[in-house]
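Journal club prep, notes for RB
We'll compare a predicted complex against what the paper describes. Inputs for the zinc ion case:
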Amino acid sequence: MTKKAAVQREKIYECEVKRKRVLPGGGYGSFWKTKTVLDALEDGDSEFRCKDCHGKVKLFRRHVAHAAAPHIEHVDRADSEYCPAGMYFRDATDGRAPRLSEAPVL
Ligand SMILES: [Zn+2]
C-alpha cells in the first residue's frame, strides 16, 4: 500500500443549474439544466447541484492552483463516495454501485 502524496481534489466541470420556465397553465416552474460551470458563471446562474447525484456542491469561481477552470466539488463526502463523478467513488475498488445523494438539492 502506498499513500498518495498529493492531496486529491475533486474537479467537476459540469453541473446542473436551476432555471425557471413558464408553465403551460400559467405561473412558473423550475427545472435543472446541465451546463459547464464556466457557462453557468457567465450566465449568472446562482443555484447549482451535482448533475450525477444531485447533491450539494461548492462552487470555485476562480482559477485556482489545483484546477484548470472554474469547477465544483461535492460538499458532502458521502455524495462523493457514491456519485459517478466523485473522486472517492472513482477510487473505490469494491465495485460499489452509484446512487443519488441522500440529501439532494431540489
Ligand atoms: Zn455528485
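Talking point for the session: The pocket of zinc ion is lined by residues 50, 52-53, 55, 74, 79, 83, 85-86 (CB under 6 Å).
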